[in-house]
Design a protein that fits this description.
Mean pLDDT is 87; it is low at 1-46 and 450-454. By secondary structure, the chain is α+β, with helices and mostly antiparallel strands. Helix 8 links the parallel strand 9 (238-244) and strand 10.
């Protein structure tokens, strides 16, 4: 592997690591290291620190001559650690110029980063790698990407090989990862073979990826395929080897021509050799339909294979695409001093580390879990398999006087690692009923088996009460935490009429959390933990009020009938203190316009006495829309297409309620006028009218009145 693993050309000191020198230095240690690594893969997780464990104190010597230190216990700021692997093309591409720019532009203030090497055996090797990474970051700062002052003392490069018995080595060897490699082997006895060449697969979300173990015949393209090629590959199980020169033409042009030739995959190599880059697209290039996988392999390896294919037709080669077990790439330490996973690096972008830090910064801003009165509802010991239900006692007197009430949700799963969590993103909805004689019926859930008996949006025949919270599960990530303000829903917890003085048989409330019955993946289940947090009452005596909730408009299929809704009419109640609309709105499904999950152009409207209130989702349909939500609680670095912007939600995040204060827009109660409240949803300014597979808008909305207890009667909404 030594002479093929060079990432850059000899003319660029920043772009290359002298792997030939490394190979010589580790000649004695190499074989034993490989055997040791293979032996550790099966045993590591049984003997290593786990996500959520407190991190022990450790220190690392750095390239600057100082030390990077972690002291066990709470931290002033989170830390993200990345371990470079010299046998991993992904690691090299992480430090390509565009990746560095994204990182320096998105890394949040306060977080610290430690870069080390996972497979360096000697300190000289570690110093080589540290210099390579440091030069890449310094190059970005020199180009004006990010503020040097803002980054000073926040980025550190370990200059020594990891001690085998150290904290970082112990965690990384247990938090297993994989390395993608490419081999070319002769199909003739005694023929030439090239093993474990570095590769970086095409951009996830733009190109498909080949499964581990795929074998395809290797064939050399006649040129760089920047121009159309009328020829055809020998058979449809062929990977076409193509020289790539940056700036000649776009990746989409090359791949479209390779696809037209009948190739099953494209293997590009930089010619002349240069740093590995990710095969991607931008703008209109992304509209070119490409369905074949593509990978970028090391330039020197590609040149040697091209030479072999060109001059030795009697000894054909085949490509083998492999995933090899390796140490973990990364870890993080949160502000509480606990170990956390960084997640799945979907692309070779350093910004995956920045997103991890953004999320940990978000978590550090959340209130302490024990602040105020905490009422446990779901304790994390029930498998989420359809509905889970709990009945708890509520101190209505304290709750009525509390200035703030919140739902505190944590989503764990059956296992210790992200890989033990269920796949796919699902809707979680929480409801409550507190002694109401006629609670709201349960709404239907997206893609639920309960929907077969009635049109979507209709009742299911069960009683749930009002929806008080909604979350979207992450895609194979664990440990998300979200705190949602539900103060406006105080009346839902106070029982009939939202009156804290009303007498009910008990003070209990029944909570229901609902998801589809197939939210698990095999034996992997979600374990939700939900509490009601009630802030201490204000010392100031205030006039007691009642809080009334009136259900408004619900979920419907997003089609030409979506806006066939009757207006709500009501007279303002006497003793009105405030009036609000609270709504949870999320889009799901995909018609020919990708509505209602991804399509841009959906706008939601409430009208009260002609006054218009609008809610849009401007990042819907954008490639990186949900990466901008990480700092507000969207778990980053999930599996799947977590990064795409959506209508009203992101994977691994609480849905933010839309709260509108309409107090000043209501007619006074003594005027005797009826207020008129309407709701509509439009697509590109018109009522939606899809031709096939219409999506759904999951809508829960309530009209909320806070009125004096001296009011003569509750309002009637018709």
């Amino acid at each position: 592997r030594g002479h093929l693993a060079l990432a850059g050309d000899q003319g660029s000191e920043r772009s290359r690591i002298p792997v030939r020198a490394m190979s010589a230095m580790r000649a004695m240690a190499g074989a034993s290291l490989v055997v040791a690594l293979l032996g550790l893969v099966g045993l590591a997780r049984a003997n290593t620190l786990l996500p959520g464990d407190p991190v022990p104190s450790f220190s690392v010597e750095t390239l600057s001559g100082g030390e990077f230190c972690i002291v066990e216990g709470p931290q002033e700021s989170p830390t993200v650690v990345y371990a470079f692997n010299t046998a991993d093309g992904f690691s090299y591409a992480m430090f390509e110029d565009a990746s560095v720019k994204r990182f320096l532009d998105t890394g949040p203030a306060g977080a610290r980063y430690l870069f080390t090497c996972s497979d360096c055996v000697t300190n000289n090797e570690a110093k080589f790698v540290a210099k390579f990474m440091s030069d890449a970051i310094e190059g970005g700062l020199a180009r004006g990407e990010g503020s040097r002052d803002a980054w000073r003392d926040r980025i550190h490069f370990a200059s020594r090989a990891l001690a085998s018995d150290g904290v970082l080595a112990g965690v990384l060897k247990g938090w297993n990862s994989t390395v993608s490699t490419l081999s070319a082997r002769s199909t003739s006895p005694g023929g030439e073979s090239f093993d474990s060449i570095l590769r970086v697969d095409g951009h996830f979300g733009y190109l498909p990826h080949l499964p581990n173990g795929t074998v395809l015949a290797a064939e050399l393209a006649p040129n760089n395929l920047c121009d159309a090629w009328a020829g055809k590959v020998t058979n449809n199980a062929t990977a076409l080897l193509i020289p790539w020169t940056s700036g000649r033409c776009t990746f989409s042009t090359v791949l479209a021509n390779a696809q037209s030739s009948g190739a099953a995959a494209a293997v590009l190599y930089p010619d002349p050799p240069s740093p590995l880059v990710e095969i991607s697209c931008s703008g209109s290039e992304c509209d070119v339909p490409i369905s074949i996988p593509a990978t970028m392999m090391d330039g020197r390896g590609g040149a040697l294979i091209a030479e072999s294919l060109h001059g030795n037709a009697s000894s054909p080669l085949e490509f083998v695409f492999s995933e090899e077990a390796s140490w973990g790439r990364s870890l993080s330490i949160d502000s509480a001093g606990n170990l956390r996973e960084v997640g799945w690096p979907v692309w070779p972008w350093l910004s995956s580390l920045a997103w991890a830090a953004q999320y940990l910064n978000y978590e550090s801003r959340l209130p302490a879990a024990g602040l105020g009165t905490v009422v446990p509802i779901f304790k994390g010991d029930q498998l989420l398999d359809g509905d889970i239900v709990a009945t708890v006692d509520i101190d209505k007197a304290d709750l009525a006087r509390s200035p703030k009430i919140s739902l505190d949700m944590t989503l764990e799963c059956t296992g210790n690692f992200d890989s033990d969590c269920p796949a796919w993103d699902h809707v979680l909805m929480a409801f409550v009923t507190c002694g109401e004689p006629d609670p709201e019926p349960c709404p239907q859930l997206i893609w639920s088996d309960l929907n077969a008996s009635a049109a979507f949006g209709g009742p299911t025949g069960e009683s749930c009460g009002p929806e008080i919270g909604r979350w979207m599960t992450p895609f194979r990530r664990r440990g998300g935490r979200w705190v949602t303000d539900v103060t406006d829903l105080k009346g839902a917890f106070l029982g009939p009429q939202g009156d804290p003085t009303a007498r009910t048989p008990d003070h209990s409330c029944t909570f229901r959390m609902r998801s589809v019955t197939w939210a698990n993946t095999g034996s992997d289940f979600w374990l939700p933990k939900l509490s009601l947090r009630v802030a201490a009452p204000s010392a100031r005596q205030e006039e007691p009020t009642s809080h009334l909730l009136v259900p408004l408009f619900g979920s419907r299929t997003f089609d030409q009938h979506y806006n066939d809704r009757m207006p709500r009419r009501f007279q303002s109640p006497q003793g009105l203190v405030s009036a609000k609309i609270r709504a949870l709105i999320t889009g799901h499904g995909s018609d020919e316009n990708q509505c209602a999950e991804f399509c841009p152009g959906i706008a939601n409207y409430f009208f009260i006495n002609g006054k218009q209130f609008e809610l849009e989702f401007p990042r819907a349909g954008t490639q990186l829309g949900c990466t901008f939500a990480v700092s507000n609680g969207s778990l980053p670095n999930e599996h799947g297409t977590w990064f795409y912007g959506r209508n009203g939600w992101c994977d691994g995040q609480a849905v933010e309620p839309w709260v509108i204060d309409i107090t000043d827009h209501l007619a006074p109660s003594d005027w005797g006028y009826l207020n008129v409240l309407e709701f509509a949803g439009l697509y590109n300014g018109k009522t939606p009218n899809p031709t096939s597979n219409p999506g759904q808008m999951l809508v829960s909305s309530h009209l909320i009145f806070e009125v004096s207890l001296n009011a003569s009667s509750a309002p009637t909404v018709s």
